[in-house]
From TrEMBL:
InterPro entries: ADOMET_SYNTHASE_CS, S-AdoMet_synt_C, S-AdoMet_synt_central, S-AdoMet_synt_N, S-AdoMet_synthetase, S-AdoMet_synthetase_sfam. It is an enzyme of class 2 (transferase). GO terms for molecular function: methionine adenosyltransferase activity. The lineage of its organism: Bacteria, Pseudomonadati, Pseudomonadota, Alphaproteobacteria, Hyphomicrobiales. It comes from Candidatus Rhodoblastus alkanivorans. Residues 244-386 form the S-adenosylmethionine synthetase C-terminal domain. It is found in: Cytoplasm. Homotetramer. This is Methionine adenosyltransferase. Residues 124-242 form the S-adenosylmethionine synthetase central domain.
Amino acid sequence: MARSDFLFTSESVSEGHPDKVADRISDEIVDLFFREGEKAGLDGSQIRVAAETLVTTNRVIIAGEVRGPEISHAQIEQAARNAIKDIGYEQTGFHWDTAEIEILLHAQSADIAQGVDAAGNKDEGAGDQGIMFGYASNETADLMPAPLYYAHKILESLATARKAGEGEAIKLGPDAKSQVTVKYVGGRPIGVTQIVLSTQHVDEDLTSEDVRKIVEPYIVGALPKGWISDQTIWHVNPTGKFVIGGPDGDTGLTGRKIIVDTYGGAAPHGGGAFSGKDPTKVDRSAAYAARYLAKNVVAAGLADRVTIQLSYAIGVSEPLSIYVDAHGTAKVDEAALEDVLFKIVRLSPRGIREHLQLNRPIYARTAAYGHFGRKPDGDGGFAWEKTDLVEKLKAHFA
């Protein structure tokens, strides 16, 4: 039997964290290929991007393989500079205008292409083998685990205030990390026992106490009313000064924050990163599909929380397996639910791409504050967060 009373902790990192700077640049390249491909009249299904980014002191290195429209190094470089500028880096050791950018993108391997591309009677295959997980829980309005959900909200609110030049928040820098320990009673989150926030600041004279005065109102505002008590323990910039931040303080790489990107450790992760990949890479698209299915199962009231696993083989179009675990909260038979999910959404790479309309420039916005638990955008961004399968699911189990 699962424990009902416990503490659980998740962390988040801001858009200015070195790894997130790398994720953002990689996803900007994905978006660039989709935008330019549309201008060139290319079918989005023919675009391939696998872009990895490394960032360090005044240096950005972009490597990987691509296929699609003709895009110059100057366009890629400008996309990277625009991303760094939007994040807010204008410091001596990492500046959007002066950082050296090296581009090492090459054509996609023909061996990979022959397995992935549709041809004749062969449907589009998965871009790699692997296992992907989706998760949903009714403990928050957006059906996400509470510790990660609120860790994201804290950093997002601070970034919004910083960029808007709001009050004392203007003294903060782009690089930050949060961590939230949530107390569960009877399986439900009821409060926060520990809060950790480390944030870069541009004023060298600020102490940890000064920083806490700046950030505390935003942290309180991001959490549910009453979740912070006199017993809540705060750790704000516990090491003291945090002036040198971002890629000048630590090297960043694409794909190093996969638990932050998903469920904060509350659910399994297949191991594959998301950023920098077009949707033929099931590391990304099938993880989105698994979340989509899980969210709709919980939204339909068929379980209070659920984990869904999908598995794929490179070059093979249909998933090898689907597994549903409702952690003892299922209102219907889990095996029957597996059958229904397989029927109502085609889970091949093409089926996922077409159902969620993933061949669009919608990826840069996913690079920070989580790929899940977000509101669907009008232009198709975060389409995997829609709950448009609820009525179909209910009808199957009526």
